[in-house]
Amino acid sequence: MRNVCKQLSLTSFFLFIVFTGTPSAAADKNALINDLYHRSGLKMQLDWMQNNFADARALFGDDVQQADEATRKMMVLLDQSLKEKFSDQRVRGIVLDHLDRDLSVQQLEQILGIMDDPIWQRAWELEGRAYQPAGIGQMQQYIAQRLENKPPRSSRVGLVSELIDVTDAVDLTLEMAIQGALMASRIMMEKLGKTEITEKQMEDAARRQMENYREQYRDMLTAQMLYIYRYMSDNQLKAYIQLYSSPIMRKLNNTVTGALLAVMR
User: Fold this and answer.
1) Which of 39, 48, 44 is nearest to 120 (CA)?
2) Residue 37's pLDDT band (cuts 50, 70, 90)
3) HSE of 34 in the Cβ direction (CA atoms, 13 Å)?
4) What are phi and psi of 153, to 5 degrees?
5) How confident is the model at residue 132 (pLDDT cuts 50, 70, 90)?
6) For 236, which DSSP code?
7) Please, how many CA atoms are within 13 Å of residue 166, restricted to the half-sphere of its CB?
C-alpha cells in the first residue's frame, strides 16, 4: 500500500484518502469496538443490568403481587416502559456510540493489547464464570458460609479493597442504584401526569438515602470479589490491579460508566 501511495500525485493521494481511506478506517474502528464490546465483559454487564432493571418486579420485589389493582396496573405500564428502555438494540447502540465517541483507534488497540495479557484473560474468565446463573448461587453460598467461617487474610482483603478503589466499584454501584430509582420514579410520574415533585428533589432524596448504604455496598463488593478472584494469587491480583490502574484503562472505565448510566436516563 505504501509503494502504491508513493506513486500517486498529491491530488490523487488526497482523493484516495477521502474516498477510500476514510470508510476503511471507519470499518476498522467498528471492528475494534465490536471486539472490545465482547472481550471487555460489557455484554455481561449489560445482561446483568437488563436482569436487574428491565423488570418491574426486579426493581420492586415480589410484593407487587400483593399490591392493589391500581398499583398492579401501574407496574404493567412501568414494565412495558422498562422493556423499551432496556431493549437490546437501544442498549447496545448507546454503549457502542460512547466507545466510538470517547476512544480513538490507537486507544482501542492499546486497550485490546492489555486485554491480551494472560492476567487480564484469567480475571475475565473468573468474572464471567461468577456471573453465570449457577455462579451467582455459588457465590452467595460461598459468602454466607466460607467467608463467615474462615475469614480471609487482611492482606488479601486489602488487595480486593485496592481493586474496588481503582475500578470505582462502590461509586458506580451506588450511582446505578440511584439512577434505577430515578428512572422508575420518572416513568411512573410521566404515566400518572404528576408534577408535585421536581426531578432534582427526587435525585437529592435518592442520593441522601443511598449514601447511607455506602459501607454496606463496599462490604458486599468486597465479599463478591473475594469469591470471584479466589483462584488468583496475590501476585496475580496485584498485576490485575496494575493493569486496571493504567491511564487508558481508567479512561475505558469512565467511558463504560458513562454509557451504563446513559442507558438508564
Assistant:
1) 39
2) confident
3) 6
4) -60, 145
5) confident
6) H
7) 20
Tens-digit pLDDT profile for residues 158-179 = 999 999 999 888 988 888 888 8
Beta carbons of 211 and 173 less than 8 angstroms apart: no
| Predicted confidence (pLDDT) at residue 65 exceeds the cutoff of 60 | no
Decide if 33 contacts 95 (C-beta within 8 A): no
* Residue 197 to residue 45: CA distance in whole angstroms: 32
What is the C-alpha radius of gyration for the chain, rounded to an integer number of angstroms? 23
The answer to whether 79 and 56 are in contact (CB under 8 A) is yes
- 8 A C-beta contact, residue 157 and residue 222: yes
The span from the CA of 50 to the CA of 79, in Å, is 12
Distance CA 37, CA 26 (A): 16
CA 31 – CA 20 distance, rounded (Å)? 17
Q: Would you state the pLDDT for residue 16?
A: 32
Q: Which residue has the cell 446513559?
A: 262
For residue 203, the one-letter residue type is: E
Q: Please choose, from the candidates 204, 205, 185, the residue with its C-alpha nearest in 3D space to the C-alpha of residue 195.
A: 185
Amino acid letter for position 126: L
Q: Any residues with CB less than 8 A from the CB of 129 and at least 6 apart, and which?
A: 135
Distance between CA atoms of residues 150 and 176, nearest Å: 31
Single pTM value for the model: 0.75
